[in-house]
Amino acid sequence: MIPFSVVLLLLCATSLPTPSVALPFEQKGFLDFGKSIDVKGLMMMMMNDEEEGSAVEEYYKPEYYKPEYYKPEQPTCPFGCQCNQKVVQCSDLGLHYVPYDVPPETRLLDLQSNQITEIREDDFKGLSNLYALVLVNNKISRVHPRAFMPLRRMQKLYFSHNQLTAVPKNLPSSLVELRIHDNHIKKVAAGDFSGLGSMNCIEMGRNPIQNSGLEPGAFDGLKLTFLRISEAKLTGIPKDLPEGLHELHLDQNQIQAIELEDLRQYEGLHRLGLGYNHIRHIEHGSLHYLQNLRELHLENNWIPNVPGGLAGMKYLQVVYLHSNNISQVDMNDFCPEGFGVKKTYYNGISLFDNPINYWEVEPATFRCVSNRMAVQFGNHKK
Question: Which residue positions does the secretion signal occupy (predicted)?
Fold first, then answer.
């Protein structure tokens, strides 16, 4: 067995009949965004995809993979690496380059936490069966434009915590998940993601990206469900992001307001992250379009009141509003006036660290909350 590197919400509400309560919305199928990847977890994902028939249709054998060249009794494994069941683990070895003798049947190649500075043209030659490539936590600043051409079936590319200044070119059309978190990327040009119709997840936070750095058409053709551009330099919600998004994370930017048209095209959102920004104003009606929202993060901003429109969101379960400037909560801020309209009760409403006199809040304000422990007040620092 390979040794794996593993990193990897008080106020009484009025008494209500016990509803059928759904759990808070949770993202499933994506790994943590830390500085190292849990290879064991990635292997489980790979095996699940294979069982569902989505990983690789059939193994491809290159020309040199003929009997006269291939000797199964003498399997190859790069020096210092550990190879088992089509997994090649070469992490934490101080490598300066991708090893040249990775077996052609490899499905998962782990090269995280090394000293690799560039990806050369032939580094992945012959690895047409590769499902996942982990290059996290290296020093890569240069990627040859043809380097990924052999990886015709690769689905997951983890390129976070490097020194990239641009999105790598000619990414495989089979790619489903891309992580380029914590690099030096300032611009996403039109065409950077062209041909990636299978992509559903892009994680590109902690890059110095401004709104002007997202060119018109940068995300054209993508059918993303998950996009994260947190810890960047955005001053407003970007325009022209993929319309089918289920999750949009823009936390820890410099966004100052939510305008009426900012969220119009994202009607399918389930989770929206706008915490730790500079938001002072949310234009009335701007949240009206998010009728499928389950979870809303607006914590650590400068918002003066509970945003309008929350009571009309039938499926909203979790709202983070702590650490703002909210001084008053009205009885219909969260719940609809009529009964039987809201489909899902709240599981969490955080209002702590706001200048609210909680004893002045009517208990009926939280009549559509699952239980009395689901609302948090207190701890305001003047």
Answer: 1-22
